[in-house]
Write a structure and sequence with these properties.
Blueprint (H helix, E strand, L loop, with lengths): L2 H4 L15 E2 L26 E9 L10 H12 L1 E9 L3 H10 L7 E4 L5 H8 L24 H4 L3 E2 L2 E2 L1 E5 L5 E6 H6 L9 H13 L11 E3 L6 H8 L7 E4 L2 E4 L4 H15 L17 H4 L3 E7 H13 L14 E5 L5 E2 L4 E7 L7 H13 L3 H9 L6 E4 L3 E4 L28 E2 L3 H16 E2 L4 H5 L2 H22 L5 H31 L2
Parallel strand pairs: 2-3, 2-4, 9-12, 14-19, 17-18
Antiparallel strand pairs: 1-3, 4-15, 5-6, 7-15, 8-12, 8-13, 10-11, 16-17
Helix pairs in contact: 8-9, 11-14, 16-17
């Protein structure tokens, strides 16, 4: 469930010839493979800077190669007192290249960037001792004032065999929740944001049957849905199911084994049966998610708050008028939690590993951590996210960043944000980015969500689970398919139970046993 966020990566096929795409950082940093050294990889440059090497995802092909990029490189190297030898690898083939690099100890960079969650081959390499244990290093708040503030809950997902093998790339924890078109609610007489599932049902019913757009036609429905099942996971949380797994009676239990799960699905099935979502939702391309709100076909949305913000921005950019006040554009209300609950994200998207083959000494590790820590300072967050003052942004009153309209791939700082952990802050706190009304609403929703967001208590254990690597993705699909079929009336409750048994028979029983062994080892410390 929530594949876009927590999909467990399987081991890739490790074959073929590795082609390394190298990009030099500056005239002071030689173009070399990670395995080559000048005299020693710990040697400092003539300017007194430490040298590190780093494998990073490349999205555009213009990373740190645009006009003024040399200024950006000089700024971050001077600020961090570090020369960085980047190894850029294309996003589309990154996981394959990662697998190959993990096999090639002679060409191992000091820092390797990982995508998404810990993949099976990374966990396997960690178990074989490929990465430094960072547990004790990052407790040193004097040396690493930013990294030492890493969230312990999120660090569990970076832990293998009790060792913190990586630093996560932070993302907003409170992204998921409920939102709706404000003017539609006004049109049908709803003056307060929903707080309960009953409130949500009432809103969806009115959006479907009380002509919220005022055109006199029966052409609207309440909630937008596509075959992307993330919204169902979020709605389940409103009923207390937990987040993929839940702690009950001292054990971790997959949510589909709880009574709250069936209660939640029965509710979703009711909104389907009552016509409050489109009948063909399960076959609608997930790439169109959000289009129904943009086109005025649906009025409510369950997903990330930033997608709700993008819908609102669409209304502004396309001058979509409010149905209750045509002198204004339509807006979105971002509620977030319902019944006081919503899902938490994993708290990260990607991570940084410090390799033993690349960073051979503790001094190497400290140099890598020093760089990663300094890149989380406000000065470097501004540089990586907004670029250069007078080139890609201007400062208003010396405190507010006003960005210009340069395409991302054309900016001098393109790619630099791939070096940042965003710990403890997801953006610079001074100066701050100029915020529009939709962004202000989004950030407020994030903050409200974070207070009540429910974490997946098994997330760290799943990363360490051999059974999960073996069968996790396949058996997860069994549950997702059955859930969709139940909502659409293709199977009944007995069918749900049959799918749950199939899940157990195909490895789910072994997964529960292993996850709880890891859980007991952890909680018993």
């Amino acid at each position: 469930m929530m594949k876009q966020v927590w999909k467990k990566a399987m081991a890739v096929t490790l074959a073929g010839t590795m082609v390394l795409s190298m990009a030099g950082c500056s005239s002071k940093t030689t173009s070399q493979t990670a395995g080559e050294s000048k005299e020693s990889k710990t040697a400092e440059t003539g300017e007194g800077k430490a040298s590190i090497s780093m494998m990073v995802t490349q999205f555009y092909g213009t990373e740190l190669k645009n006009d003024h990029s040399d200024e950006v490189i000089k700024k971050f190297e001077d600020y961090t007192n570090t020369n960085v030898d980047f190894r850029w690898e294309a996003n589309d083939t990154y996981n394959e290249k990662l697998g190959l690099v993990l096999m090639d100890k002679d060409n191992m960079p000091m820092i390797i960037t990982g995508k998404g969650d810990l993949s099976a081959n990374v966990v396997d390499a960690a178990k074989k001792g490929a990465f430094w244990d960072l547990s004790e290093f990052i407790k040193d708040s004097a040396s690493y004032p930013n990294l030492s503030k890493a969230d312990p809950q999120v660090l569990k997902s970076m832990t293998v065999d009790g060792k913190v093998i990586g630093l996560y790339r932070a993302r907003e924890i409170g992204r998921f929740g409920f939102s709706y078109r404000t003017d539609w609610a006004e049109a049908v007489g709803i003056t307060q944001a929903p707080k309960t599932v009953e409130d949500v049902y009432n809103m969806l019913y009115k959006f479907t049957y009380e002509d919220p757009d005022g055109n006199g036609k029966d052409d609207t429905y309440g909630l937008e849905m596509t075959k992307y099942v993330g919204p169902i996971d979020i709605m389940q949380s409103w009923f207390g199911t937990g987040n993929e797994w839940v702690a009950q009676d001292g054990k971790l239990v997959p949510v589909h084994q709880t009574k709250e799960y069936k209660e939640a699905l029965t509710w979703v099935k009711k909104i389907y049966d009552d016509g409050l979502i489109r009948k063909d939702w399960a076959t609608v391309d997930s790439g169109t998610f959000g289009d129904a709100l943009k086109k005025g076909e649906a009025g409510a949305f369950v997903d990330v708050m930033d997608s709700a913000k993008r819908i609102w921005n669409y209304y502004i950019q396309n001058d979509i008028k409010s149905v209750t006040d045509p002198s204004k554009t339509a807006t979105m209300t971002m509620v977030g939690p319902i019944n006081g609950k919503t899902l938490a994200t994993s708290g990260f998207n990607g991570y940084y590993l410090i390799t033993k083959a690349g960073a051979k000494t503790e001094e190497d590790v400290k140099n890598c951590l020093h760089f990663l820590d300094k890149m989380c300072d406000n000065e470097m967050l501004v540089l990586a996210d907004y670029g250069l003052e007078g080139v890609t942004y201007d400062l208003k009153d010396g405190k507010v960043v006003v960005r210009n309209d340069l395409e991302v791939q054309q900016t001098p700082h393109t790619g630099l944000n791939q070096t940042i952990c965003y710990i403890p802050n997801l953006a610079s706190t001074e100066p701050v980015l100029e915020k529009t009304e939709p962004t202000i609403a989004q950030d407020k929703a994030y903050a409200e969500n974070k207070k009540v967001a429910v974490f997946n208590p098994a997330l760290g254990y799943l990363a360490n689970s051999g059974v999960n690597a073996e069968v996790g993705t396949d058996i997860e699909q069994i549950i997702d398919d059955a859930r969709t079929q139940y909502i659409c009336g293709q199977i009944d409750e007995a069918g749900l139970d049959a799918a749950a048994k199939q899940w157990l028979d195909r490895g789910g029983d072994r997964l529960i046993e292993e996850i709880n062994q890891l859980y007991q080892q952890d909680t018993g410390k």
